Amino acid sequence: MSVKRRASKLAVITLLQIGSVFALPTTTDSVRFDCIFSATSGGHVLKYDLCPLLSRAKYRISRDVETPPSITRIHYDISLGDYIPWDGTLPARDQCEQGTNVCMTVISERPDHRLEPPRTIYVVPVAGNFPDRQLNVTSKLSRKIDSMGNLPLTVTFRGGLYMGVPQKAVFTFMCDSSVTEPSEPTLLSHADPLEDQGNHKLVWKSKHACPLGGYPSGQRDGPPEPTLPIPVHDPLPGSQDGGRMAGPGTVVIIVLLGMVIFGNLKRRWAGRHSTSRYRSFALSRVSPAVHHDADPRSPLTPHTPDAHHIRKYTTVDYLLSHLPNSTDQPNDPSLSFAHHLPPGSLPELQKGIDNLELFQADVTDEHAVKKLFSRGGEFFEQEVQVLIGKSLDKFHLKDVNLVDMDLAQWKRTLDVNLTGPFLLVREFLRRLRKPRRKFAPDLSKVAVVVIGSTSGEFGEAGHVERAIATVPLRKIATTSDIARQVLVLASSTFSGHVTGQNIIVAGGMEGRLLNPPGETSAKHEDGSATAAASTSPRAKPRMDLGFTNVHVLITGASGGIGSVITRLFLDHGARVTAQYNTKTGVLEQSDRLHLVKANVTDAESVKQLFITAGDKFKQEVQILIVCHGIWVKDEVDLVDMEPSQWTETVSVNLFGTLLVAREFLRALRSPRQDYEPDLSKVAMVVMGSTCGEFGEKGHIDYACGSSGLQHGLVCTLKHEIVKIAPQGRINAVSPGWVNTPMAGFF
Question: If you average pLDDT over residues 209-222, what whole number do you get?
Fold first, then answer.
């Protein structure tokens, strides 16, 4: 391809990007649909005049949804007669782009937190007229007579696009002469912009929704009428009514176009003498469109059964649009795109792009991943230098709370979203460390990008399995430091207002509320207080935390931290069921301490654990402390880690916690007769780690498990637990190094 042709292509691409910023409608732009139109009914032509309903500048329709502990406020701004006015006082990210007629805004608000401002979750342009998408309006008369004997009129406004999903506002106009004007639309159902096919349904009752001249006589139910387009005035250049004049954006585009063409010609000419070349590897598992579990949020997932295509306005489209059509220039990157569709399902993705190659691979299979990198290197005669990983192919459209979740869903999601990236990055690093001789890469270009999700930080209602998908410490903490924090968080008396928090404990807690059994307070050289072992009799607690006769279950109770937590709860009058795996350690059976051996990775064993616990104290568990976990002492970098180590750590630390938490919630939701617990005391505390916040060299398996617990699990379950126990809470304690046998200090 000639330099001029290549420069022209890049110029057009750049122009499209610039146009979205500068080519905004000028002040004289105004594109309106024809509010006087006709529709057919049983061979009769009915004429409508909706203009009086559009005289008002803007309507705001709102609905509040309780999502404890916050409130989700859903707003629809509607301006069908003209565009929604731009608000210069709001950030651009918090309002729809100019040219929008119907805009959906979703805001999360915490009424009980006055200092926490409302947070805008997303802003969706539902319908409008934009530089790359034109307003489209259609009408359709129903043949089913409503309760007032009239035919509802449906008018659909299109043109909006959100994350690649087309949006539309569906107005049902109901003829009602008794309505006092001016009337307003009401929200029938709000849509998830990424699901529900982008349908936003509203109802508008008005006398102006009646046809001019009335309905024909003898109307009755019948087959549906055809959908008819309503004209949209596309203004002519220079017209006074809604004309699009050459504004400053047009001038800017012309100037920039010339600069871009000249710059690209110059750069391409200089590029002939460059030898730099690198390879990118974009990895994504794409499910067939017919699979109902395909992720609608993934820009690579088709929505229709016969459309295995890449949607417009996605990251991948942007990437592909910037790839040249040949590899004759040394600066052009080569792109390998791994997918999980049958061969030939994505032919148009590769069409016309010589330096793009598609490979089919299952990223959860170790051997398939090795073969993927091997084939990619051989095809382009170079090892991969840039890895872009998005392995999600399992996002269940239906929200499923943890208490109802099937284990197969959990395992499959973690396999693809967690184990998949582990295998990919490991093989990527191995190839870089020992590249094939003739495929040696340029190490200065090496980079890895893994696409995650906001649910990993903030949780996601109904998708705990997806959500689960270090600062220097002052000193090594003692088990007492951690145990104190656990008890304080578990106490409804003291921490009844705290939920969804991850407390980092680095040792040396100031202002202690209680002393652990058999310990007194001591001073360090830096003046901070900590607990030290003592031979004196057990000290009485300084404060009543409300644990008397409360049933507490502690997993990993025989460990270094777990045993101290167990003794503290017993000293505060609690009834404790202590789970252990192989050894009871220092714990001994008593009237208020029940020792139970159980495997937290086995669903049936966990179920029997809670049954036995309830039978012992004639009461279901009210407080759950998750303290079990495994940690491989030897440091192993990812490039050398065996999948068996990863699987075992994640299975015990993450999957085991899921099973225990699920059974805990099920027992609370459906307690056995005479075993009813006091729901005001319900709490759950999860043991995390600072490495879940900041990582830890040589322990990526433990760090990933901890992060999933203290962020994904906690932030998601805080919304689910209140559905069962309105005052229920869940928090995490994340210690740094602690003086325990597992850490190897004894």
Answer: 71
Model confidence, pTM: 0.43
Length of the chain: 746
Give the mean model confidence (pLDDT) for residues 323-349: 48
Structure tokens at 354: 């010589």
CA distance 702 to 681: 31
- Could you tell me the two tokens for 491? 């106490």
- Give the separation between CA 658 and CA 408, rounded to whole angstroms: 13
Task: Report how far residue 281's alpha carbon sits from residue 397's, in angstroms, rounded to the nearest whole number.
Answer: 29
Q: Which of 211, 205, 207 is nearest to 47 (CA)?
A: 211
Q: Enumerate domains of the chain plus CATH numbers.
A: 1-26+246-273 (no CATH), 36-230 (2.70.130.10), 276-452 (3.40.50.720), 479-517+549-735 (3.40.50.720)
Q: Exposure pattern of 712-728 as b/e (b: 16+ CB <10 Å)?
A: bbbbbbbbbbbebbebb
How is residue 724 written in tokens?
A: 């069962």
Torsion of CA 659, 663, 669, 675, to 10 degrees: -160
Cβ neighbours of residue 444 closer than 8 Å, sequence gap 6 or more: none
Query: How far apart (Å, rounded) are the C-alpha atoms in residues 311 and 321?
Result: 12
CA dihedral 631, 693, 122, 412 (to 10 degrees): -10
Residue 557 near residue 584, CB atoms below 8 Å: no
pLDDT, tens only, 375-394: 888 877 888 888 877 655 54
With H, G, I as helix, E, B as strand and everything else as coil, classify residue 489. helix
Q: Which 3 state secondary structure label does DSSP give 500? A: coil
- Which of 654, 685, 658, 682 is closest to 669 using CA atoms? 682
What is the C-alpha to C-alpha distance for residues 384 and 435, in angstroms, rounded to an integer? Answer: 10
| pLDDT band, very low/low/confident/very high, at 411 (cuts 50, 70, 90) | confident
